[in-house]
Write a structure and sequence with these properties.
Blueprint lengths: L14 H12 L14 H5 L3 H21 L4 H16 L2 H15 L3 H9 L5 H21 L2 H25 L8 H5 L4 H19 L3 H23 L4 H21 L2
Helix pairs in contact: 1-3, 3-4, 3-8, 3-10, 4-7, 5-6, 5-7, 5-12, 7-12, 8-10, 8-11, 8-12, 11-12
Length: 260
């Protein structure tokens, strides 16, 4: 007997679907996809990470501006800004940084490092890494001082630090077969180029002539994390991408402070 069940037409994903999935993954915004994402939508959505990052940077700049309007000291405004950004992302990248620090610092073998990184508990290396990362970002934002300078720096740092993620995922092999990195797949080369191009445009618009210094700082920080991942894991994990985001964001902020 022939199947009389009507078949729904397959949804063709658009760039808006990719952007939406990127925002769902990277933020805590109450967004929902209208349909279940196809497996290849995850790697393709990585091309839009810098645009989501730029939005987060604007949000952080808004928090700093509101704190400044309330006549709070720059250091307090910076602390509130970093806290608000951590809330907006659900601490996604900080969690990755903590896991990488614990794994690389506490494990002797590749297998043991991966085991530690999968453990939900945070050790002393992880705590120290997150504390230092938060302190450096707070200090950099407080030094930049004005709401306009902080907003520009956050937009550039957030865009660049997320543009390197598809590049690392495209360059390196997943360290696990069953991890988040493996399940999301390798982004297409065109999406890697898109991410880098978006970051370049956003950064140029935000910080102007400092774009070259920001680009070099981003490349150096991302390469350092990538080389460490190769040394310790012979590949990357989702935690490694989180650590790379933190490293690049800090490198960009410190570079902009130095170039003032």
């Amino acid at each position: 007997m022939p199947d009389s069940t009507p078949h729904r037409p397959r949804h063709r994903a658009t760039w808006l679907d990719e952007l939406m999935l990127a925002a769902v993954f990277l933020t805590r915004l109450p967004l929902r996809l209208s349909h279940a994402p196809e497996p290849d939508l995850y790697p393709r959505s990585m091309g839009w990470y810098p645009l989501v990052g730029a939005g987060l940077g604007l949000f952080g700049g808004g928090v700093f501006a509101l704190a400044s309007l309330a006549h709070l000291p720059a250091t307090v405004a910076a602390v509130l800004t970093v806290a608000a950004l951590a809330w907006a992302t659900g601490g996604l990248h900080e969690d990755g940084l903590a896991d990488v620090a614990d794994g690389f610092g506490g494990g002797r073998t590749r297998e043991r490092k991966l085991e530690i990184m999968r453990d939900s508990r945070v050790g002393s290396y992880g705590v120290l890494a997150v504390v230092l990362a938060v302190a450096l970002r707070v200090a950099a934002l407080a030094e930049l001082g004005t709401p306009l300078a902080v907003a520009a720096a956050l937009v550039a740092a957030a865009a660049c630090s997320r543009a390197v993620l598809p590049a690392l995922a495209w360059t390196l092999e997943p360290a696990r077969r069953d991890g988040l990195a493996a399940s999301h797949g390798c982004p297409p080369s065109r999406r890697v180029v898109l991410a880098l191009a978006l970051a370049a445009v956003v950064t140029l618009a935000a910080v102007g002539p400092a774009v070259l210094g920001v680009a070099l700082a981003s490349l150096a920080a991302a390469a350092a994390v990538g080389l460490l991942a190769l040394k310790h894991l012979r590949g990357y994990t989702g935690d490694v991408l989180g650590a790379a985001q933190q490293a690049v964001e800090i490198a960009v902020l410190l570079t902009l402070v130095a170039l003032r």
